[in-house]
Structures are given as C-alpha cells and as structure tokens.
Design brief:
The chain has 113 residues and is mainly β. 0% of the residues lie in helices and 45% in strands. The radius of gyration is 15 Å and the shape is elongated.
Length: 113
Amino acid sequence: MEENRIFGNVCCNCGELFLYNVKYCSVCGFKNFKEKSFIGDGEIYSYTKIYYTAEPYKKDAPYIIAIVKLNEGLKVMGRLLGKIKEKQLGIGVPVKFVAKDKEGFKFKLAEVR
C-alpha cells in the first residue's frame, strides 16, 4: 500500500467499487476489473465507541471504529485516531486517511476551515 492511498478495484462493466479482489461483480456479474487508487478523504457514515475489547487493545479503549464513505464512493471500516470528544463525532463529519497497518485502516478527523 502506497502512503496516503487506499487501493481497490472497479468493475469494468458497471463501475461498482470493491475494496478487495473479487472474482465477479456482485452487481452485474462481470469478471473484468481494474485497480483503482482512492485518496482516502471522506466522511463518517456510521461509528461506534469501543469500551471493552480483546487484550491487545485494552490499553487503547475507549476508541472509535467508523465506517467511512470515501469521496469516491467506496465504504471502508477503520479506526479514528486521536483524542476525540463526543461533540466532534457525527454522521457526515469529514475524515482523512492516515495509514493502513496490520490492524486495518486508520483515519483522523479532518480539520474544518
């Protein structure tokens, strides 16, 4: 994965977006795809605050997991980084892609001007 980019696939027939490699398009059944790069800017589509978690993550709790709808249309799940107050959260709040590691995608709240 390139820094500050998310890679996925787009169906060459209908344009449906996929995060992972698939054998056929779930919308039109087509089997031809091309790789697509996503910038990673988007907005919170849904989120939850994790209070209780497995041992390796207990030190981080509570933390926020969100489904992010990228500006290009793809939805991905990831963790929101940083100290985030409840009043900063909400559906439609802008976020920026930070990185991907073995735990998944990481986002931060975008600075609104």
